[in-house]
Write a structure and sequence with these properties.
It comes from Streptomyces kaempferi. This is Pyridoxamine 5'-phosphate oxidase family protein. InterPro entries: Pyridox_Oxase_N (IPR011576), Split_barrel_FMN-bd (IPR012349). Pfam families: PNPOx_N (PF01243). The longest helix is centred in the first third of the chain and has 10 residues. Helix 1 crosses helix 6. The protein starts with a helix and ends in a 9-residue tail after the last strand. Strands 10, 11, 12, 13, 14, 15, 16 and 17 form an eight-stranded antiparallel beta sheet that branches. A seven-stranded antiparallel beta sheet has the order 2-1-5-6-7-4-3. It has one domain: Roll (Pnp Oxidase, Chain A), CATH 2.30.110. It is built from six helices and 19 strands. The chain is α+β, with helices and mostly antiparallel strands.
Length: about 290
């Protein structure tokens, strides 16, 4: 099924079930040749899953030379390399049958592709057998013209239960983050974008953002309707700092239809220079709403 009861509940609340059914026709299990070619051009992949030991949901960044992610079957992608040992998803992606969501996003072309399924370890990394494959529109994606791979050595990961003032500043300066959610039969990784300041840090343990209008599928909010666990991933696109947050999220619906998501932080893992990619400055999406 494209939608479970959580997504259906949100679609009905907003009044977009018919539109969601139409958009959902583009969701499949197979990886088309154009999608396979897109994957092989990417230097990064975001994966979201639950830690098998704690149940906490995290989103993590994987990088490599183009071709490190590739389609190795009509319903399978293979990833060369694994997360570092201090990555909160290291155990999940090394296990058999982990429910995992992935998103490949190319800032150069403002294209993105999501593939959700089950992972299994391989000799050189891991593979994901797809249950759901689909693309999203370029809405709210910032264009970054180019990147270079620099010789960074990731620093030691630091862990805490809340955000420091510096980390809160990184969050509030972000124009992009990634969001991992789960439900009983799957996991998903999605993208959120906007002008800097679209995410607010109301304290060391509370974030909020407006849920901008999208494709009406409500996969993310539907997952949160069924299971509030979530993981957020913020990147410093210049320095390579990788900031991962885990916690719970809930959506509030205003009478005028506007939605706000509030995220409660329960864990933070920051890796200085965790990404070897240095991207050019952004050209903000013309779809980004103006901020007050």
């Amino acid at each position: 099924m494209t939608y479970h009861s959580g997504s259906r509940a949100v679609q009905d609340r907003v009044g977009v079930r018919d539109l969601a059914d139409h958009v959902g026709q583009a969701v499949g299990q197979g990886i088309r040749p154009v999608a396979a070619a897109f994957l092989e051009q990417q230097p990064m992949l975001v994966a979201g899953a639950a830690d098998p030991a704690t149940g906490a949901v995290w989103a993590s960044l994987l990088t490599g030379p183009p071709g490190f992610v590739r389609a190795t079957g009509v319903r399978q992608i293979s990833v060369t390399g694994r997360p570092s040992e201090d990555d909160p998803l290291a155990a999940a992606l090394a296990a058999e049958g982990t429910l995992v969501g992935t998103i490949a996003l190319d800032p150069r072309t403002r294209r993105r592709m999501r593939l959700n399924g089950r992972s299994r370890p391989t000799a050189g990394g891991f593979a994901v057998e797809a249950d759901r494959v689909f693309a999203n529109c370029p809405k709210y994606l910032q264009r970054r013209e180019s990147y270079e791979t620099v010789g960074r050595r990731p620093g030691e990961a630091s862990r805490s239960g809340g955000l420091s003032p510096r980390q809160r500043a990184l969050v509030e300066a972000a124009d992009t983050f990634f969001l991992a959610t789960v439900h009983a039969h799957g996991a998903d990784a999605s993208h959120r974008g906007g002008n800097p300041g679209f995410v607010h840090a109301d304290g060391p343990s509370e974030l909020r953002w407006r849920d901008y209008p999208g494709n009406s599928m409500f996969l993310t909010l539907g997952n949160l309707e069924a299971d509030p666990r979530a993981g957020l991933l913020f990147l410093d696109w210049t320095s390579g700092t990788v900031l991962r947050l885990t916690g719970t999220a809930r959506a509030a619906y205003a009478p005028d239809g506007e939605r706000t998501v509030r995220f409660t932080v329960t864990g933070v893992v920051e890796t200085p220079e965790g990404s070897p990619l240095r991207w050019s400055p952004p050209e903000y999406s013309p779809a980004n709403p103006s901020l007050p």
